[in-house]
Amino acid sequence: MTISELRKKFISGEYTPMEAVAEAKAVISEKDGDIHAYLDVYDDAEEMAKEATARYQKEGGNTPPLCGVPLAIKNNILIAGKRATGASKILDNYIASYDATVIKRLRDAGAIFIGSTNMDEFAMGSSTENSAYGPTRNPIDQSRVPGGSSGGSAAAVAMSSVPAALGTDTGGSIRQPASYCGLVGLKPTYGAVSRYGLMAMGSSLDQAGTLTNSVEDAETLFNVIAGRDPHDMTTISGETYGVAPTKDTYTFGVPRAFLGQGVDADVMERFESHLDELRAAGHRIVDIELPLFEAGLAAYYIVMPAEVSSNLARFDGIRYGVRKEGKDLLETYLNSRADGFGAEAKRRILLGTYVLSSGYFDAYYGKAEALRGKMRDELNAAFAQVDLVVTPTAPTPAFKLGEKSDPLSMYRQDIFTVPVNLTGVPALSIPMGEVERDGVSLPTGVQYIAPHGGEARLFDIGRKVYDAKRYNNG
């Protein structure tokens, strides 16, 4: 069920939060041994459900918007008293001492936290194969990845253990798993959702967002977690940026040259069919040029590792986390990091340290940041002509576990999503149909990109083209 469907049943008394939690844990017990979506399942969920059930009996429809709704939370988002590892051995024993702002807001809205989900280590990856605790499998085809780095959250929703989950998106880490698992994935405007209490990977890129079964649910969750936060000076409020107005029909921009970047033929066929559906609904489709977006992936893999190198310097085995003793302080530091970090984390730390080093900073990092500014200008110019930009979310459906052993091949899965994070605008991925691989029908996704602060426009078009079809089909 969706969040809205659950809430209606809670209000009517037809179903209770206690039953929802029991069912969620039954599904996890039955399926998660194979899927491995969760790192921890919380034993206090029943107590939270008991309180929510009592509230519905007393208050009915006057309860907060998420009262009694079970949610799964990515393991790089802090929940007080719960283990928060970022799926890394270096934080294997770390217990969070406070709630992230998004968690506090979900608590205030009555949500129940079922457990924490698996992920690529410190959110570095596109497949959830880089977890120190083993990979997550796609519930649709267990021989395939669920995407990453929020693959555990996507799998938790796709296997029907929870109606929704929180993830984080640094370069597509919500939208790509949503595409691979047949879900709705929202990456908000940078600053719309507080990063306080999120383990930092790329501070200028990271955003918490949602994985849901409907656009309506994405909007419900966004309205709860969004807003200014005094703990995060990058946050913005709805009053401080221009919200793109909604319309009866929209003009969509399709960056045709950009789409020539290795998209599978049947995925492109599904995309063209989706454009035909938009035209049939009265929307206008025009071709646009975004030439700098083609360099976005290269810029991203300079900016992001540089910020990773800085942010992961705090994990040193001294203040918290796993400690591997050495003969002196330096050796303890080196041992802890060598043993605690996985291969992908080390790769990105090394790359980031290199591009920030003397003699290379201007040649690499400085140029990548300059390109980033020009990409924003290019996108703003496009939005003067169109209401939304539309692309496939990923160039392929979910790939096999172990198939992308070459890091560059893996990185190319994010080619359509990373420009969104570099420019700070919001984007929404919704299912756009299926393609067949090895006799299995696999979902694909379409990505809508809106102007800065344009979440309302994303929710509007998403409800029109996806929710309406979903509910009409029962």
Salient structural properties:
15 helices, alpha/beta, 11-stranded mixed β-sheet, 474 residues, Amidase signature (AS) enzymes, 14% strand
Explain this structure to me?
- The chain has 474 residues and is of the alpha/beta class.
- 40% of the residues lie in helices and 14% in strands.
- The chain has helices spanning 3-12, 17-35, 45-59, 101-108, 151-158, 175-181, 215-225, 265-280, 296-311, 329-340, 343-356, 361-383, 407-411, 418-423, 455-472, and strands at residues 38-41, 70-74, 112-117, 164-169, 184-187, 207-212, 251-254, 284-287, 388-392, 427-437, 440-449.
- Strands 1-3-2-4-6-5-10-11-9-7-8 form an eleven-stranded mixed β-sheet, sandwiched between helices.
- The longest helix has 23 residues, at 361-383.
- The radius of gyration is 21 Å and the shape is globular.
Write the layout of secondary structure elements.
Elements: H1 3-12, H2 17-35, E1 38-41, H3 45-59, E2 70-74, H4 101-108, E3 112-117, H5 151-158, E4 164-169, H6 175-181, E5 184-187, E6 207-212, H7 215-225, E7 251-254, H8 265-280, E8 284-287, H9 296-311, H10 329-340, H11 343-356, H12 361-383, E9 388-392, H13 407-411, H14 418-423, E10 427-437, E11 440-449, H15 455-472
Parallel strand pairs: 2-3, 2-4, 7-8, 7-9
Antiparallel strand pairs: 1-3, 4-6, 5-6, 5-10, 9-11, 10-11
Helix pairs in contact: 2-3, 7-15, 9-11, 9-12
Organism: Candidatus Kaiserbacteria bacterium RIFOXYB1_FULL_46_14
Active site: 74, 149, 173
Subunit structure: Heterotrimer of A, B and C subunits.
Please tell me the overall pLDDT.
95
Based on secondary structure, the structural category is alpha/beta
Global geometry? globular
Number of domains: 1
**CATH class placement:** Alpha Beta
Order of strands, main sheet, comes to: 1-3-2-4-6-5-10-11-9-7-8
How many separate helices?
A: 15
CATH topology: Amidase signature (AS) enzymes
What is the number of E strands? 11
**Uncertain regions spanning at least 5 consecutive residues:** none
Major pleated sheet: 11 strands, mixed
Helix content: 25-40%
Name the CATH superfamily classification.
Answer: Amidase signature (AS) domain
